[in-house]
Design brief:
Rossmann fold, alpha/beta, 7-stranded mixed beta sheet
């Protein structure tokens, strides 16, 4: 399990702000609608929803990130509420929300059917949920695949990953609860001074990297894995003078 309170996820969250804006735009929120941001991190989507007049609650399992989100809301004069809690056991009543958002958040829940069941449980009649998920392709996914493969070899375990990007898979889960699913496509660019600088920044700040690194260092594999990962970034770099890669994502829209 990744401790998302490690490091400075704030740095990654800033990179992902355009996706949060896209998700909130697709939600077409109305003033006064009750909105829940599941696995809200530092509050990107929650704060955007609050700015358009929604009644917003954010929830995350990492207390430090919840503190960051609360401070952002206070600084910006927004009324969003933030709670510490588990996406797989939402501490809210049935039908408590009109809209649920999750920007690259609930996709990391270990039990996807349970997580989706919780999302639809807290939605009221006619409610909608919007979940962004990475499409497993391209340079970034290849780099992460090297790291995940090395961790699986070091630990002897390779946890199954639910394909949140797959419309058919999500539709099958949602249909169990009488919900329908549609999808919107998107892409986002990641930029840095160089491939090496991009990897180093994530190595120092990203919770996933900080969780993986000690496991690989203990087995003496980290140096070789790091070299392979950086080589993938160099090979996929789209900017010969700096660094740029593009990753596709999908927004799954679940309607009750």
């Amino acid at each position: 399990m990744v401790d998302w309170g490690l490091g400075r996820y704030e740095e990654t969250a800033r990179e992902l702000e355009p996706v949060a804006a896209r998700v909130v735009s697709l939600a077409a929120l109305q003033p006064g609608e009750r909105v829940l941001d599941v696995a809200c991190g530092t509050g990107n989507a929650a704060l955007l929803a609050s700015r358009v007049g929604a009644d917003v609650t954010g929830l995350d399992a990492a207390p430090r990130l919840v503190d960051v989100a609360r401070e952002r809301a206070r600084t910006e004069g927004l009324q969003a509420r933030f709670d510490v809690g588990d996406a797989q056991a939402l501490p809210y009543e049935d039908g408590a929300f009109d809209v649920v958002l999750s920007v690259f958040g609930v996709i990391f829940a270990p039990d996807a059917p349970r997580a989706l069941a919780e999302i639809v449980r807290v939605l009221g009649p006619g409610g909608r949920a919007l979940v962004s998920a990475w499409v497993p392709e391209g340079t970034l996914d290849a780099m992460l695949g090297v790291l995940r493969g090395a961790v699986a070899e070091a630990t002897g375990t390779a946890p199954a990953r639910f394909p949140w990007h797959d419309l058919d898979a999500v539709t099958e889960l949602a249909s169990r609860h009488g919900a329908t699913v549609s999808v919107e496509e998107g892409e986002i660019a990641f930029v840095a001074e160089s491939p090496d600088a991009y990897f180093a920044a994530n190595e120092a700040n990203h919770p996933m990297s900080l969780s993986m690194q000690p496991l690989l260092e203990r087995g003496g594999a980290y140096g070789a894995v790091r070299e392979e990962a950086v080589a993938i970034l160099r090979s996929g770099n789209q900017d010969p003078d700096a660094f740029r890669i593009t990753s596709r994502y999908r927004v799954l829209i679940v309607r009750m």
